[in-house]
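Look over this record before class:
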Amino acid sequence: MRCEVLLYDGFDELDALAPWEVFEGVARERDDLDAALVTLDGEGRVRASHGTIITPHRALSEQVDVLVVPGGGWGERSRAGAWTEYERGVVPAAIRKRHEGGALVASVCTGAMLLAAAGLLEGRPAITHHSAIADLEATGAKIIHARVVDDGDVVTAGGVTSGLDLALHLVERHFGASVALAAERELEYERRGTVWSPARV
């Protein structure tokens, strides 16, 4: 399984690195999971919202099984971040293309706004950071007040630290509860909040 976390200038560090660390830790123990930090072109360095500079592992793959999209800078309408990428449209187009190719697309925090810009959330249950809920609802998404909202091929999570819960949920979904529990133990983190899915309603 190929799992990629999509970086862009202004992304929030914890939105991206927390899920990546979960997946990378599991990948160390398995031959059937590949986890990477990617950008659209795979070149150069990316500056995150708090100033961290990261060199991606590679370019976003044409075929990916799980694509995680972080947020960052939405509330401040930062010159670099989710707001800028929402307006520019290049990242949303890439997200849509991978989804159409069969990828499960997941977002953390205001990364959900980029999924909305990709046309993936209209009429569907979703969640984002509390500061952007009105914006997300205005795109036609059905707001579900849960830590993680699993709607099958699209999974969204609330703000910042919920990326850990998102990633652990996806690990359990794809590899089973025992693998997810082992990942929790390694991180010394216990999942919190509600995971919503249509099957649980």
